[in-house]
């Protein structure tokens, strides 16, 4: 049975897949490089959904460290043990610190303890060091601290002490080392002595963060991103940008400066889905715009920040700011450009320097709105564009065509944005696998002189099972691989692409599928990740013609294909997708090939279309590499059933 039929796809596709089942000759004209591929072609899209920031990429292990959640003691509990005496009172001093007004006043009579549960626990590793810190002052008496990591059963996993508190607010630090590996540890802080301590920003970070930065990013998650070699990073979202209403929108200025002075807000995914409520989901903005820019720089990626355009999520309140009151939103855009690119003599450039980065971040792109639609979006984008194009013509503005891949709102957005000469339009598509198989030729007939395309959010949504990672099946990844041949072939129109969402915690997700899954100790790359990695790692500099019987391969005989040239490396990358349940014997004719040379063949294949990777079994779908000898004419190759293959070919 053809695997497309097995997957429940349309009869039309099955018929197309079975037609012309004989072996095909595929011609690659490696001596005729075509349009240039943008360095930004394959990138990543980050949004704080699925505990991707707090509890994920941002390595803070203490939840509600500053007592600013809607329930001030959420995630905190008194340690119940005989002999412990004391109490905690939450004070609100908004006049002194409006961004972070709450702090805990802890009175102790001998010994008293508080425990923090972390983000579905705290992952600690044997022999690893952890940095504890808090802001505190001794309001009265004489109190010292004892900091302990404990297992769910109460076993001590590490301990340190901290003293030296005085009557002034200061940051105090200590370090401790874990004696065992535990995914569900918790932190206990004991106050010993007599008196009252006022405390805020109680924090625990692994010492081994990305690039060793104190209070930084979780190293293993960033390493997964680095392996993708992303051409750009789009941040901070997504629907996060919009907010449920405008008061809940993402405001970049509240995410920069000292972490203890950044204003926490509720995460809009907190109770967005009734079946996946997460009332403990907030945004501390420890991971803010400075850290996003820094991460992009670390990875050699172009930063693509997205700003609110004066519109809240149209699926929620649909609230908009009046057009004659849009100036502060436009000013935020101007100030962001200054923060990223301005000299240290400017207000926002100086703040960037004060945060440790005197050199500019060289911002080139700026997104206006996330996926808004209809006339209210066009009206607001127009006002942004009028100002930004005049004051900063060097910045490429990214607009949006709404949440759908077609339809009335999509067509309206394209028509109006074309009139405005919008340079780059963001398209989103979350669809079943069959849509991706059917749309590999989507961009073949787009206007070559019109706006360029940013495929900003896409993912094939296959069937799901209870296990968190189950929706990231090989079927969904195979469908994306087939579709992406069309993105690559049309690189003169498509300038940016990114799968979405990026991260998900296996115990705290709101949305799936997602590219990378993790718990408190481990990560797992999905089959979709390996498809994205193959395209990004074998991106090339120019598109090459690749045809069978004079036509692009967009599903004929169950095959999809694209090819690119890397002028610097002097190789061609040939990408071949076989969606049939049968092995395909093909013949490659590659003009310009260096014959009889070793070439690398990397293949992704699975035992079943619904195979997926898990934390326990991370390599159910994993690339396999082999070598072959090239031939200029009549080069025989075999494509496994339901497979994605990349062949690296040396060029003369």
Summarize the helices and strands and which ones pair or pack.
Elements: H1 3-6, H2 11-18, E1 25-29, E2 44-45, E3 76-78, E4 86-92, E5 102-116, E6 122-124, E7 129-150, E8 156-162, E9 170-177, E10 182-206, H3 219-228, E11 232-235, H4 239-242, E12 265-266, E13 282-283, H5 289-298, E14 302-307, H6 327-341, H7 347-354, E15 365-368, H8 374-391, E16 396-400, H9 408-419, E17 424-431, H10 433-438, E18 452-460, H11 474-489, E19 494-499, E20 503-505, E21 516-518, E22 523-525, H12 527-537, E23 542-544, E24 546-547, E25 559-566, E26 571-578, E27 584-591, E28 598-605, E29 624-629, E30 635-639, E31 643-650
Parallel strand pairs: 1-27, 2-11, 11-14, 14-15, 15-16, 16-17, 17-18, 18-19, 20-21
Antiparallel strand pairs: 1-24, 3-5, 4-5, 5-10, 6-10, 7-8, 7-9, 7-10, 12-13, 21-22, 23-25, 25-26, 26-31, 27-30, 28-29, 28-31
Helix pairs in contact: 6-7, 11-12
What is the total tally of β strands? 31
Largest sheet: 8 strands, parallel
Number of helices: 12
Percent of sequence in beta strands: 25-35%
CATH topology-level fold name of the largest domain: TIM Barrel
Q: Unreliable runs, pLDDT <50, ≥5 residues?
A: 1-21
**Which homologous superfamily in CATH is the superfamily of the largest domain?**
Glycosidases
């Amino acid at each position: 049975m053809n695997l497309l039929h097995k997957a429940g796809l349309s009869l039309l596709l099955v018929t197309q897949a079975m037609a012309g089942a004989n072996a095909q000759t595929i011609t690659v004209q490696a001596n005729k490089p075509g349009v240039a591929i943008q360095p930004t072609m394959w990138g990543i899209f980050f949004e704080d959904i699925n505990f991707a920031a707090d509890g994920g990429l941002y390595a803070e292990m203490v939840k509600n460290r500053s007592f600013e959640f809607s329930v001030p003691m959420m995630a905190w509990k008194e340690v119940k043990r005989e002999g412990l005496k004391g109490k905690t009172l939450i004070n609100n001093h908004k006049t002194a610190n409006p961004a972070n007004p709450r702090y805990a006043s802890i009175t102790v009579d001998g010994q008293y303890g508080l425990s923090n549960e972390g983000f579905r626990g705290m992952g600690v590793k044997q022999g690893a060091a952890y940095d504890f810190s808090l802001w505190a002052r001794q309001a009265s008496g004489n109190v010292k601290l004892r900091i302990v990591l404990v297992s769910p059963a109460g076993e001590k996993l590490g301990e340190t002490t901290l003293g030296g508190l005085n009557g002034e607010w200061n940051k105090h630090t200590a370090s401790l080392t874990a004696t065992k590996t535990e995914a569900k540890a918790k932190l206990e802080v004991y106050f010993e002595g007599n008196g009252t301590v006022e405390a805020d920003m109680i924090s625990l970070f692994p010492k081994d963060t990305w690039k060793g930065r104190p209070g930084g990013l979780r190293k293993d998650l960033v390493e997964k991103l680095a392996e993708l070699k992303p051409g750009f990073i789009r941040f901070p979202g997504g629907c996060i940008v919009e907010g449920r209403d405008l008061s809940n929108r993402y405001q970049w200025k509240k995410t920069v400066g000292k972490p203890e002075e950044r204003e926490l807000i509720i995460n809009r995914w907190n109770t967005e889905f009734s079946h996946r409520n997460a009332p403990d989901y907030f945004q501390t903005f420890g991971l803010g715009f400075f850290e996003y820019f820094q991460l992009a720089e670390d990875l050699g990626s172009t930063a693509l920040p997205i700003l609110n355009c004066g519109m809240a999520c149209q699926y929620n309140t649909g609230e908009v700011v009046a057009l004659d009151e849009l100036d502060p939103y436009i000013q935020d855009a101007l100030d962001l450009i200054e923060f990223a690119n301005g000299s240290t003599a400017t207000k926002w450039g100086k703040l960037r320097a004060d945060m440790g980065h005197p050199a500019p971040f060289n911002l080139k792109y700026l997104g206006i709105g996330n996926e808004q639609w209809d006339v209210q979006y066009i009206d607001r984008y127009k006002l942004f564009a009028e100002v930004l194009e005049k004051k900063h013509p060097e910045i490429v503005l990214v607009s949006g065509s709404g949440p759908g891949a077609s339809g009335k709102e999509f067509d309206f957005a394209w028509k109006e944005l074309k009139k405005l000469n919008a340079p780059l339009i963001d398209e989103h598509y979350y669809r079943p696998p069959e849509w991706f198989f059917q749309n590999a030729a989507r961009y073949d007939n787009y206007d070559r002189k019109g706006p360029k395309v940013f495929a900003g959010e896409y993912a094939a949504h296959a069937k799901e099972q209870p296990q968190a990672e189950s929706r990231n099946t090989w079927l969904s990844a195979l469908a994306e691989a087939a579709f992406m041949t069309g993105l690559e072939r049309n690189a003169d129109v498509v300038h940016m692409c990114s799968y979405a969402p990026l991260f998900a915690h296996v115990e705290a997700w709101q949305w799936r599928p997602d590219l990378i899954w993790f718990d408190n100790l481990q990560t797992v790359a999905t089959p979709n990740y390996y498809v994205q990695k193959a395209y990004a790692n074998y991106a090339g500099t120019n598109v090459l013609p690749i045809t069978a019987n004079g036509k692009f391969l967009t599903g004929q005989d169950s095959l999809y294909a694209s090819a690119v040239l890397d002028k610097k490396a002097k190789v061609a990358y040939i990408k071949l997708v076989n969606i049939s349940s049968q092995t395909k014997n093909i013949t490659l004719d590659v003009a310009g090939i260096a014959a009889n040379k070793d070439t690398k063949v990397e293949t992704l294949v699975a035992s079943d279309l619904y195979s997926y990777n898990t934390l326990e079994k991370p390599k159910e779908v994993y690339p396999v590499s082999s070598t072959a000898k090239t031939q200029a004419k009549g080069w025989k190759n075999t494509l496994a059933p339901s497979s994605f293959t990349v062949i690296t070919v040396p060029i003369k």
